[in-house]
Request: fold
Amino acid sequence: MNNISLPQTALLETNCPELTLLARGKVRDVYEVDEQYLLFVATDRISAFDVIMKNGIPGKGILLTQISCFWFEWLGERMPHHFVTADISKMPASVQQYADQLAGRSMLVKRLTILPVEAIVRGYLAGSGWVSYQQDQTVCGIELPAGLQECEELPSPIYTPSTKAEMGGHDLNISPAEAEKILGETHAHQVEKLAISLYAEARAYAAARGIILADTKFEFGVNEAGTVVLGDEILTPDSSRFWPAEGYAPGQDQPSFDKQFVRNYLLSIHFDKETPVALPDDVISQTLVKYQEAFALLTK
Reply:
């Protein structure tokens, strides 16, 4: 799966007039195919601090899609999910006519009623979890042992859900109890169980390839039969923290297979976290390399 060609220019927006555009997210354009199926298209847009930048990362959407496809196929039938195919030739003719835009970066998926909570699982203390822990030794209301260091492995993975913000908004960390109030007891418990189980499986797989899966975010929905189903993208550098196992040492930030170069650049220019900016060529190229490395290691 490692042989993949990437475009020289970034695709920032798709244009498929004979399909109904339902949404443009930070990265993905979502189209209606029919009553049963949607088309998820990963563009090359890149966001940081919930702001979409003026330019993109050429081929990033293809890499994200292929990583998600790999995981869905790896998952097989062990967990219900929405993925149908990423092969344009197996999609309806209404989609195939836009193959020049969509090939390699699109997934045909089953429609779901998406649950309004993001299922985040953390195995290490990083990001907003580390910030919260420094304040009161908790993450999303979960008490943790004293004396943990930044990026230290947790005694066991924890489920730390968040709200799903509207476009331009910010997700808010909430406690599992608050998630239960939003989702109801049955769905909340199913989501938590599925998320932790999938994280554990994926973490073991990644570890065998020299990668630490520090944390990840899943989205779940409900199908017509009322079954909780895994949706969205899964286990990509945009939804997960992947660290190289070689050189890992707690007590400091870790190098990541993600858009950390973008975040670091924005922090260096005192980015206001509101106004889109154009990224320099070197930041774009360094970021692309990290996505390519993640793809190569995970899918080998």
The two ends are 7 Å apart (CA to CA). The chain has two domains: 1-111, 114-244. The longest strand covers residues 211-222.
